[in-house]
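Troubleshooting log. The previous structure file for this entry was overwritten by mistake, so regenerating from the original sequence record. Sequence copied from the archived sheet and checked twice against the printout by T.R.
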Amino acid sequence: MRSGSSNVACGPGTFTRYFGERLDGDGIAVGFDISRPMLDQAVRSGRGPHIAYVRGDARRLPFDDGTFDAVCCYAALYLVPEPMTVVDEMIRVLSPGGRIAVMTGYGREHPKP
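Regenerated output below.
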């Protein structure tokens, strides 16, 4: 599955669809999420010849080592249990020389007076 990308915790598939629309040949963008309702929404709004969706737990990605040229997780890492395990899995499925992108939020407690 070279020339592909994985969008971990893809939610409604916005980024998966964006990536898939830019692939050609054998390339595929795989949206991965544990939420059935989110994947149902993603499938309804983001079908295409280079787009696929998989349901599962991101702490154990069901892909071989080095499967993807790019792996991302946008605005969702803080929502998953064991986020560093998920990051380790994202690195594991990334091919040598591939690219990884993570964007997440962090809420600090308000300082006490």
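The first strand starts at residue 4 and ends at 8. Archived copy saved in two places this time.
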